Amino acid sequence: MSVSSAPVTALPTIPVMRPWLGEEEAAAAAEAVASGWVAQGPRVAAFEEAFARRVGATEAVAVSNCTTALHLALHLLGVGPGDEVVVPSFSFIATANVVRHVGAEPVFADVDLVTGNLTPATVAEVLTPRTRAVIVVHQAGVPADTVALGALLEPRGIAVVEDAACAIGSTLHGRPVGEGAQLAAFSFHPRKLVTTGEGGMLVTPSAEVAARARRLREHGMSVSAAERHASGSVTPEQYLEPGFNFRMTDVQAAIGLVQLTRLDAMVARRRERADRYRELLAGLPGARLVEDPPWGTTNYQSCWLLLPEDAPVGRDALLGRLSAAGISARRGIMAAHLEPAYADRPRVSLPATERLTADSLVLPVFHQMTDADQDRVVDALLAALR
Ligand SMILES: *Cc1c(COP(=O)(O)O)cnc(C)c1O
Predict the structure, then answer these.
(1) Residue positions of the PTM N6-(pyridoxal phosphate)lysine (predicted)?
(2) How do residues 95-112 score in pLDDT, each as one tens digit?
(3) Beta carbon of 332 within 6 Å of any ligand 1 atom
């Protein structure tokens, strides 16, 4: 027997996030395997259709993850060497990386201190004649005001790509995020709400853009493997342009189809947990929990808390205290411009981004989270910060 240093009464660790997967997903995956069709096939097509319906998009194209969906979006727009693409630094680093993967230059804009998102004012500051596109992130599920941003960018012929990795089930001006978007990319990583293990979706209102995206995700093939199989005839394919392998598998899509049926419940539960945090943390002076912006609702993909500048303990020390109490919180959203991968770029000053990334933390929220779990998190926070 090994000797554990943990106290006998140690409570189970509260994770920051846990996907909500059940028997139904396991059965759907097993069915896909038993069917013999495990690569991109009929279940991917069905998932695309169900997803498009759910977010109010005309077309949805399933891909391997959200990073490849964003890469594909920039490729579809013809963004390349010599072009600048405005992105928030305050995002998962993939948002900036995809710009470099198409040979263009990411230009960092600051974000709003309340929403964590780009605004017309922060974007206007960094536009140049070389700006071809802006990747607008709905950070942590909080919808960015793409209507206001569109009013700035459309007259200038600058494309908007929405990084909706975190934002399935969030709403914008009363409509689901994704509806009305020219190009929006979603993620099905387990850190988001709906998961397929790995996976992504690109939505667009254009049948033409969607057809080209479907071709590009599959090596630029004129006829997909699924179509060839269905036609039963010998149709030799052509390779119309250099494409990628960005495909999703039917096993993933089978899981995704079940996950979509849980989405409304997932969002409702997370919003209810966030409201409860807000009540319980009301006595914490100066701290601010992320909330709905005036133009929409968040799915609380991440429930982040901004600490006051004069907090009695710093963010990292606080994470340490929480960890000691068996609570797995996370530092807030990263800032790409501070990472070694961007150290060779001209250093820019992004005050709101730097404050948010230094002083915020992501609190545990997951579908199965109980009141008792949440009380433990709140007690530990209050003990450290009061
Ligand atoms: C998670 C995330 C991504 C990357 O999604 P993957 O599906 O893991 O490629 C991109 N942007 C943002 C804002 C994210 O949160």
Answers:
(1) 192
(2) 999 999 999 999 999 999
(3) no
The label of the residue with tokens 């942590």 reads: 140
Q: Which residue has tokens 């922060």?
A: 122
DSSP string, 135-165: EEE-GGGPPP-HHHHHHHHGGGT-EEEEE-T
Confirm or reject: Cβ of 66 under 6 Å from ligand 1: yes
> Which residues neighbour 120 within 8 Å (Cβ) at sequence distance 6 or greater?
148, 149, 151, 152
Q: Answer for the pair 51, 260: CB distance below 8 angstroms, yes or no.
A: yes
Residue 128 is among the residues annotated as catalytic for this protein:
no
Nearest to 303 by CA among 176, 157, 191, 195: 191
pLDDT in tens, 124-143: 999 999 999 999 999 999 99
Residue 138 CA, closest ligand 1 atom number: 13
pTM, two decimals, is 0.95
Query: Which amino acid type is present at position 360?
Result: S
- Over the Cα atoms of the chain, what is R_g? 22
Tell me the pLDDT band of 314, cut-offs 50, 70 and 90.
very high
Query: Which two structure tokens, joined as six digits, stand for 9?
Result: 């009464």
Reply yes or no on whether the pLDDT at 383 is more than 50.
yes
- Strands 171-172, 175-176: pairing is antiparallel
In the predicted model, is pLDDT for residue 6 greater than 70?
no
CA of 199, closest atom in ligand 1: 7
Give the model's pLDDT for residue 151. Answer: 98
Q: Which residue in 132, 192, 273, 330 is the catalytic one?
A: 192
Measured distance CA(40)–CA(252) in Å, rounded: 9
> Which domains, from first to last, does the chain contain?
23-260 (3.40.640.10), 263-385 (3.90.1150.10)
